[in-house]
Amino acid sequence: MRILIVEDDAEIAALVGDYLKIHGYDTALASDGPGGLALAAGGGFDLCVLDIMLPGMSGYEVLRELRERQCDIPVLILSAKSDEVDKIRALGLGADDFVQKPFSPGELVARVGAHLARYKRMSEKSAPRHRVISIRAMRVNLDTRQVFMRESEIALTGKEFDLLAFLAQNPNSVFSKDALFERVWGLDALGDAATVVVHIKKIREKTEEDPREPQYIETVWGAGYRLRV
Predict the structure, then answer these.
(1) What is the DSSP letter of 188?
(2) pLDDT tens for residues 34-70?
(3) How many angstroms separate the Cα of 4 from the Cα of each of 15, 30, 46, 109, 229?
(4) What distance lies between CA 35 and its chain's CA centroid?
(5) Domains: count for the chain
(6) What is the domain extent for residue 25?
(7) Same domain for 17 and 101
(8) In the sheet that 152-154 helps form, which strands lie side by side, from edge to edge?
(9) Are residues 15 and 105 in the same domain?
(10) What average pLDDT score do residues 123-129 get?
(11) Using 50, 70 and 90 to split pLDDT, how confident is the model at 176?
(12) Final residue in a domain of this structure, among 123, 148, 165
């Protein structure tokens, strides 16, 4: 597995790289935004560890460009920013995780491993079986990882699709934010509710006629979310 580290702090980059190499990962380093974007967009990487404050262009800009170019590898944001708004912005742009500095190298490696394992499972394609879940005007194709509302395809990020697909495979079942994080991100208590909330919000914005009154993913107050059939 090959990991791209985009970090301008040489000491932090070396620390992350050393820990990943100890655990058997191959790594490459970019020390500014444009360099990181060029490497990531060129392909050949399985995951990206991305800082926010970078020379040339911010990590937010790098992330936005990657998702617009349909690069769907997991992206873990590594940042000294601690405000909730920064985390929500990163997740909203398509980040898969947000790790705050200072961080535990061991925890970072655990997060990397969890995201890689889930991404591999979701990316492995067998012979097309065209497993399609139809819920009123929505169609979720589990094999091609496509979502259609009526006849229009909806562009979802990798984690947005994973979350919607999980709910679609468990219709009418209520899952708490923690349960969804564990099932979809596979990280047990390493995450927080903001990750799930932001992804639900983005899915609603893309699939609902009126996201303020969702007809598919419903909020069950005090309990969590369900996809209503």
Answers:
(1) G
(2) 999 999 988 889 999 999 999 999 999 999 999 988 8
(3) 14, 8, 8, 13, 41
(4) 22
(5) 2
(6) 2-123
(7) yes
(8) 132-135, 138-141, 146-149, 152-154
(9) yes
(10) 52
(11) very high
(12) 123
